[in-house]
Structure formats: structure tokens, C-alpha cells
Amino acid sequence: MLDRMNDIVIENAVAPPRTKRSHTVGELYKRIKDMTILYDFMPGERINEVEVSNRFGVSRAPLREALNRLAAENLLHFIPNKGYFTKKLSRQEVFDLYQLREIIELGGLRLTLKKATDEEISDLSDFWDSVMERTDELGAKELVTLDEEFHIRLIRLSGNVELVRSLNAVNERIRFVRWIDLKREQTTYSEHRSIVESLAKRDAEQSETLLSKHISRRMEEITLILRESVAQLYVR
């Protein structure tokens, strides 16, 4: 009987509430991640843990957990006995990431052409039309966010969750360079309209050509973009 009562107690037990500590780590992770992606820290700068702890009013333990997560995602660099450092702007790394982005998106596009319905493609078109109507009102960071959303929606139509997850990870690591690039020439985003039109026609060859050119068009200018990025970081 006693064993039966214990079983009942266990079955009816309520899961413990989410701890304040886990919430703090998650919030810290997100906020420091945003700061890292947008280079609120200088490239190659050592993260001052005491300063960051005081800034957010948290102890060092949850901060260290958040920093460990960012280092595991390759957004920060950890050096034993020295601490955590922001990543330096590397031309080769950015070039490699652009190539990876192209591979992911072209693979996703091929699946999208097979799986997406006409209605889904029309919804994608409507979304981008609504963005283009507001381009004069939007800043560079907002346009980058919406541009990323266009590409994520496009790849999401493939039905492959892992492709979407991979593209999000790449976007996070090239976001700052794309922000600088976008401020240089916002009119390039009319290319999305051509991509959607080719999708609607189910023209695989044209769709792939347009998307590939759209992604790789700036690769030869990455060196210049990175040079300007660093210059702007130190004068803002």
C-alpha cells in the first residue's frame, strides 16, 4: 500500500518551475549575442566580465554560462587564462560564409520549386511587396532583418527545417557585413522581385541563376566592405 501511495505522489507531482537562473542565462545569452553580432564590442576586444556583470546586474556564474554558449557557437573566442574575445573581422571567414550561404540557399530553392504551392509563392511575393513600399522609412538594420526574413521564408517553403536552421546560423555571423553592404546600395533588393517572379513561373534555371547572382554579387567587394566596416566601428 505504501509503495502504491508513493507511486501516486510521484505521478501527481508538478514539474518544478523554471528557475530564475535559467531565465537569466537565456536573457544574457540573447543580449550579449545581439551586441556581438552588431559589434557593440570592438573586433578582437576582450570581454570585461566584471563590467558586463555590473551593466546587467547579474553574477559572474550566469554570465559565464552565456559566454560559453556564444563561444560554442563560434561567435566568441575563448583563450584559456585570458578570457573571452569577440571575433576579428576575417575576409576569408566572411567569404567562406557567403559561399556556404549560397550552397544552403540554392539547395533550399530546388526543394522549394518542387514543394511550394502557388499560394505560398504568392504570399512570399506579397510579403516583399509590402517591404518595398516602406524602404524609404526603414533604416539599414531593419532592412537587413527583412531581407533575412525574405530568404528564410523562401527556404522554409522547402520544408527542410535543418536548412532553415543552418541559414539562420550563417546569417548571424555575416549580419554586420551585410548591414554595411546594404547601406551602400539599398536598390539591390529589387532582385528579390525577379526571384519571386521566376519561382512563380517554376523556371528552375532562371531562379537558381538569379539567386546565385544575388548572393555572390558582392563577394569580390568583401575586402572593401570589411575595411569600411572597421573604419565605421571606430568612429561611431
Automatic annotation (TrEMBL):
GO molecular function: DNA binding; DNA-binding transcription factor activity
Keyword Calcium: no
Species: Candidimonas nitroreducens
Domain HTH gntR-type: 22-89
Entry keyword set: DNA-binding, Transcription, Transcription regulation
PANTHER family given in the database record: GNTR FAMILY REGULATORY PROTEIN, TRANSCRIPTIONAL REGULATOR, GNTR FAMILY
InterPro entries (alphabetical): GntR_C, TF_FadR/GntR_C, Tscrpt_reg_HTH_GntR, WH-like_DNA-bd_sf, WH_DNA-bd_sf
A Pfam cross-reference name: FCD
Keyword Transcription listed: yes
Protein name stated in the entry: GntR family transcriptional regulator
PROSITE patterns per the UniProt record, alphabetical: HTH_GNTR
